[in-house]
Amino acid sequence: MFTSLAVFTMATAFGLVHEREKALQAAHAEVEASVNQSLSAISVSLWQYDVHGMKALLTGMLRSGSLVRVEVMDLDRRIVDIAQPGFAGSPERTWTLPITAPDGSWRIGTLRISESYGQVDALVAERFETLVIIDLIKIIGLALALFAVVYQLVARHLHRLANDVMQLGDIRDAPTLKVDRRRIIGGHDEIDVLADSINDFIAERKQSELQTRRYEAIIQSSDDAIISKTLDGIVTTWNPGAEIIFGYSAAEMIGKPMDRLFPAELKDEEADILRQICAGEVVDHIVSKRLRKDGTQIYVSATISPIFGLNGEIVGASKIARDITKQIENQIELEQHRTSLERLVSERTAELERVNEQLLDTQFAMDSVGIGITWADLESGRFIYANKYHASFLGYSVDEMLQLSVSDIDPRFPPEAFRQVSEQLCQQGSIKFETAQKTKDGRLLPVEMTVYYHPGRMSSSPRLIAFMMDIAKRKEAAHALQMAKEAAEAANLAKSRFLANMSHEIRTPLNAITGMVHLLRRSQLTEGQRDRLLKIDTAGRHLLEVINDILDLSKIEADKLSLEHTDVDIGSILESVMSMMAERAEKKHLAVIVENGIVQAQTLIGDPTRIQQALLNFAGNAIKFTDTGHIIVRARLEAEDASTATVRFEVEDTGIGITPEAMQRLFTPFEQADDSTTRKYGGTGLGLTISKRLAELMGGQAGVSSTPGVGSLFWFTVCLEKGLTAELRGGEPLARHEEGLLKAVCSGKAILLVEDDPTSQEVAAFILRDLGLVVTTADNGQDAVDLARSQAYDLILMDMQMPLMDGLEATRHIRGLEPYRDVPIVAMTASVFEEDRKRCKEAGMNDFIAKPVVPDDLFSALYRWLCR
């Protein structure tokens, strides 16, 4: 019997060792699977530095029960450390895993895991208790069998002794057996041996009963369900743990089949389990669903082992089950979170891949164009990162660069200056500037720096992130561009000076021509002489129009043409155009029709002079290219809103028309519909171009429609504002009255006429004296200054370009004389550019009259300043 007990004990020990190794392998495999599932999510969280997300993931890992501690470290320090309470002292195994970037390209941290053996040992202990109970049952069975054999062998001699043994009652209260040899016939020494054996059996039985009660206490106090059943599935034992887990009492389950605990879809599972038990197999750690008494489903983890009879036959099955519903629900929830996380990670990975592709493209572009990148400590300015380009640009290796600070490579930023810039960056976030950085060999290279302030994170201190660009070529290009700009400006200035000089040279004799024509027409002439003078005057005006067109085009191309901002009277503009065109149209027997479709309910604001100029260009061309029929000049409202009105002006003729090919060349400078040397109609081809440019400057457009042999319709639009002007222009006397008013009011006033051209001087002096003014002439600016010192004048007419001293210098000298601080000085010059007007004003002149001088313009200026 003792030999059997030793054999059973050794078998149990080997079984337990085997069970423990299997349990450790299973637990470790489960941990490895859980860690591998979570490692990618931990990598993403560490990559994004999401500490809260990492803590949630690691806490979920600890729920498995096999892990007692997990911690995450980046390349420098520990970030997260979570442990199960009271894990210290438990047998454990610690292992580490590298954490790589989400794309697996490089290592960014370490995951350290501590795995406990306590749970496995507890399970083995439970298994040990079950096996011990089974061994005890086997030993008791063996003892009973031995007792039966002995009883049969000594029945004739020990009948009385057997009765005494049967009367012992409860083994717990049984006394030691006293053998009376006198009562046994034929007694011998074997009886003493038997008595001793029985006494030993009673002692062992008491000890076995005590051990059994201990095991029963363990079974009764276990939170796990410990159940035994027959091979038919009928419950034979049902501990309190089973009552708690399944809700059935022992009375309700003992003697009943187990199938009431199985859901409908798992009815065949019990039969499969019993088949394995009958085959002597152990169903280890099966996870399945079961039904509680209240109908709810729970998850259980069960181990079912066969129960062997005295002869080694399988007589039933023992089952240890644990309610793992909460764990399964946590796993399901974790799986859902994992699935959701995988989806998010997949989406984020796709996004990161897209962003990474963009970053790679950007990096490629940055590497191609060459951008230096450095990180510097906010306090010390020491470099904590430098890319290869920046280091090699300055002649250093990356390691050498990391031994330097900002002050070492940029002389502009010694430590004190660097601290000031750092404080500025902390406030405004970024700064961009140009500087020169010192190379390893001492050269200074021009660079452009863009520096950003980075506040840092939990594991990193504030820093400055700088991007460097080599601007040496840009500096060279900028210098070359500056030189080209200066050359272009010089060329443009030369062009402007040429145009100004040409304008001056043409306008000066033209002023003499038109002036003499004006004087001659006021004298007694024959009809033939008047006709000849009219032709001379017409030719002069035409020449003046050509000069003005060239100057206007030059101003438009230089973006120096300024527009007025004053009242626009559409009706007055149409009447002026009609009156100016009437004489030319009458000579060709053409009818001029004006159609004004605009009723001005409120003031329109724009540049009436430029509108009239564009309309005159169109009307002049219409008369030029029309031999019979009529000319229609019309205006109509095209569109309006609360603040603006778009007005469309049209000039329609019955002239020769324009072919489609020729229309493509219109509105181009110096282009005409007929540009052959034998063309019938002359002209420069600038009128249409200037009109279109003027319309565009006034917010509109220009165009044409034409049919050869039928006629043409030229149109342009302007955008005018609604409202009143800041300065009303009303109240000025009409030009035709100003000559008479000057003679009546200003006769006898002294005028200083400064003009170097004799003919222009003669014409102007004649007109002034005809008004009753006292005129003194000067041939240059120096003479004018000398005369001003010796005599008082009421008004000075000053030319600009003169020998010895020009008009601007003379004006400045005269303004320095006390009596002439408020005396009006009016420029009368052939220099008509806007710059010339500004120079006149800056020199101290009050007004400006362009040559050739139109008498009405001269009368208006004299009236403004002499009749104040």
Strand content: 15-25%
Total number of β-strand segments?
A: 26
Fraction of residues in helix: 40-55%
**Biggest beta sheet attributes:** 7 strands, mixed
**What is the helix tally?**
25
Radius of gyration: 59 Å
What separation lies between the terminal Cα atoms?
Answer: 149 Å
- Helix-and-strand structural type: alpha+beta
Shape: elongated
Low-confidence spans: 168-172, 177-188, 672-684, 725-735
**Mean of all residue-level pLDDT scores:** 79
Describe the structure.
- The protein has 868 residues and is an alpha+beta fold.
- The strands form 5 sheets. Strands 15, 16, 17, 18, 19, 20 and 21 form a 7-stranded mixed beta sheet that branches. It has a 5-stranded antiparallel beta sheet with strand order 6-5-9-8-7, sandwiched between helices.
- α1 runs parallel beside α9 (325-369), α3 (118-153) packs antiparallel against α5 (189-221) and α20 crosses α25 (855-866).
- β25, α24 (834-843) and β26 form a beta-alpha-beta unit.
- 49% of the residues lie in helices and 22% in strands.
- It starts with a helix and ends with a helix.
- The chain contains 25 helices and 26 strands.
Please name the defining characteristics of this protein.
868 residues, alpha+beta, elongated, seven-stranded mixed β-sheet
Give the SSE layout.
Elements: H1 2-48, H2 51-62, E1 67-74, E2 78-83, E3 92-100, E4 107-116, H3 118-153, H4 159-166, H5 189-221, E5 225-230, E6 235-238, H6 240-246, H7 250-253, H8 269-278, E7 283-291, E8 297-308, E9 314-323, H9 325-369, E10 371-377, E11 383-386, H10 388-393, H11 398-401, H12 406-409, H13 415-428, E12 430-438, E13 444-454, E14 463-470, H14 472-521, H15 527-557, E15 566-568, H16 570-587, E16 591-596, E17 604-606, H17 608-624, E18 630-640, E19 644-653, H18 660-663, H19 687-697, E20 702-707, E21 711-722, H20 735-745, E22 750-754, H21 758-770, E23 774-778, H22 781-790, E24 795-798, H23 807-815, E25 825-829, H24 834-843, E26 847-850, H25 855-866
Parallel strand pairs: 16-18, 22-23, 22-24, 24-25, 25-26
Antiparallel strand pairs: 1-2, 1-4, 3-4, 5-6, 5-9, 7-8, 8-9, 10-11, 10-14, 12-13, 13-14, 15-17, 17-21, 18-19, 19-21, 20-21
